[in-house]
């Protein structure tokens, strides 16, 4: 399947296909979808804050948060489609001939490219989830109090989607031979895990103080 | 809208509606959907384990896990539909007349009933997420190694969906006058939060040891 097809499935079909033994959608795609739901919760609370007399003073900030949440949502949707396409891409490389030394070398090189791409995609999903977390943190103290719990929902879901997407990084990274790339991704992974836990806890604490 | 309608939406529409200022789907429904995705990941790994010579010995346990994951998925789908219906129910009670003392008393009584129902529903969603977590824990040491990371995805997502669903409990519970009910729900909330964190960490550790 092409990744874009998933957006025309019913919600019921998404669950059925995810539960089946079909290879896609797998954990990376599901993580991107959860990140997208988290981005939607940030947008919803921003939309419920804008245009209200009581929240007039924070309108410019909330407009900014809404625009960034929409960009993160778009990035996560693209990441999901891409995650599914990576699978077909990988399968195609696996089927390349390896009869001669030249064919083997060409296949190995394409395999390294496919692995980097299959690492960059979930890393991008995790980075977009991190962005959603930061938006939830910015919205928590100023968003509409009547819907503030949904900012907490966004924070919990974005943090877990970030960690879940990183499993796809952990699987592919050890097979990549470029040491500089490995080191760079490992550092980014550690940074995102550490920061995300702090931002999630701080955001939930603000939300709870406003329930 | 009736809760069941959501299952015929496209995945794209789910995100658009969640992001809009429409009151449903809100955080409770979104949490149920994430719990359902986690249940689907458990089912997928179970399906990829069954029928494989290498995993023949664990087949009876995995069959049991698959059946329970399907039951949890079904429970979460019902919980989502119910969460949306609770909202219409609540709005209907708010519109009841309060012209006389009798009308006021009748309205207050119906309101208490609606609040209990709007607390039981997300609590049930959280309990189903907890069940998914326990199934992920059971599958982590015996599921197909080639797909084991998706058990970790299930664990992260189920734990966060549990915590996210509990916000709906936290909002409604303080308005319920029945002290026994309040105490019972608070105890269950504390138990689920504590146990879920432990089970999630233990499951992720097993998954990481098998990557």
Automatic annotation (TrEMBL), chains A, B:
It holds the Pfam family FTCD_C. Residues 11-189 form the Cyclodeaminase/cyclohydrolase domain. One of its GO terms (molecular function) is formimidoyltetrahydrofolate cyclodeaminase activity. Keywords: Lyase, Transferase. The keyword Lipid metabolism does not apply. The keyword Secreted does not apply. InterPro entries: Cyclodeamin/CycHdrlase, Formintransfe-cycloase-like_sf. It comes from the Bacteria. Its EC number is 2.1.2.5, 4.3.1.4. This is Formiminotransferase-cyclodeaminase protein. It comes from Acididesulfobacillus acetoxydans.
